[in-house]
Amino acid sequence: MEKKIIKILSNVLEVPQTDLGEHSSQVNVANWDSLNHMKLVVALEEEFGVKFKDEDILELQSFKLIKFILSKYLK
Amino acid sequence: MVDIIDYFPMERWEQMRLFLSECYRLDHAICDRKFFEWQFQADPSDGNASVLCGWENDRLVGILGYLPFSVHWGELGNPYPAVWLLYWMVRKETQRGLGWLLTKRIQEKYTLLLTVNASELGGPFFKKLGWAFFPRVARYTCVFDKKQCVPLLFPSAIESDLDKMIFRPIFPDPDSITEVALNKENYHPDWKLYSGLSFGTVRSLSYLTWRYFKHPVFKYYVILKGEAQRPAVCIYRIEKAFGIYDALVGRIVDFFHPDDKQGKTDGLILMQGVLQYLKNKGCSYVDFICSNRTYSQTFLDLGADEEPNDRQILPVRITPIQHTLRHQNFAFLAPQGGHFPVLENMHITKSDIDGDGPALIPKNDSR
Questions:
Q1: For the segment A21-71, what is each residue's pLDDT rounded down to a tens digit?
Q2: What is the pTM of this model?
Q3: H helical segments located in chain B
Q4: Is B172 exposed, middle or buried (0-12, 13-18, 19+ CB in 10 A)?
Q5: Which ranges in chain B are annotated with CATH 3.40.630.30?
Q6: Which of B83, B153, B267, B305 is the most buried (most CB within 10 A)?
Q7: Do B121 and A58 touch (CB under 8 A)?
Q8: Number of domains in chain A
Q9: ipTM strictly over 0.90?
Q10: What is the CATH number of the domain that holds A57?
Q11: CB contact under 8 A, A32 and B2
Q12: Quick one: fold of B139-325?
């Protein structure tokens, strides 16, 4: 799952995979703006076959949080 | 945690004013309470304005204004419930995704959504959400006084550009125009006579009353020609340009007429009368933003020309005069399986929502 998340982040945010990891968040990734956040959510939903609740969409602010929230949906 | 509420309570106005002044512009007209209440149709009975709001810990962090209006969508005389969106903004430091959630919320309530003047961020957003996006609604200009227009020209324009847009009256003895106060007796159009209005806001009496007669800042003039059930209609205002040069500029905000021969004639006579009046009033030029070829053709027939796509000849923003390329864009999300019109068959003008909004409240405002 982690590798898939990194790949999606890399594709959407146009950042090399090697620059992304546990530390990555909206605060320290420059291209993580509102439009890319929407693209990110859509890509995650398509890749993992889930539909995020509105409150979770707002919480997907970092790699760690994406991993945590996705885990809840995939249980 | 952000809570999204479907309305804005005017009792919390100070929070909204602060939000707008910090996220938009401190001096913009929308920061004026009276204008805000008009723009978002604040209900006097419950004090609520039509604005979706995101609240985080009791602090306003995002808004999306919405105005429900009936629209003709391919079936004249059979209006469709729609919503126009405006003022979509979120605090920069707020979590990503709120802007999208505000749009998702309104898309859950309406199947036909429209907007004009989306920002540089908004345009790509709407496209990504599956909206049809048109970066430019055609703008037409007609010059009354070439000498007065020369100082107003864009740097990239030349004096001879004006020669293609000089006012050319057709009728030798034009009718004089008279401003009217609309009422049920003089205005009850049979919309089936207006094929040019097949896709656009229903120009009902209540809509025009709100849009023009109750406007708290601008003085609009509504001119009719023809019988009550089939009038030609022209709505305009006069604006004082200032900055590098002072001038008066006419703005045709809306124009439409029945599409039969009599309707077209009434429209032509009406438009010529308005243009002659504006010229006599000392306007340097007049412009008309209109997607619909049926109605813009009348303007062209009287000497106007379409401004080019990639540059501008005479300024749009004139208070103060700005020589920045500006287009009115337009976007819509249509019901699935329904009509999907081309822009030229739609009637989108400055009439629509905040297509013709004041940037500032006039300094001598005595409201």
A1: 999 999 899 889 888 999 999 999 999 999 999 889 989 999 999 999 999
A2: 0.92
A3: 13-23, 33-39, 98-109, 122-128, 146-149, 205-208, 261-280, 293-301
A4: exposed
A5: 2-110, 139-325
A6: B267
A7: no
A8: 1
A9: no
A10: 1.10.1200.10
A11: no
A12: Aminopeptidase (3.40.630)
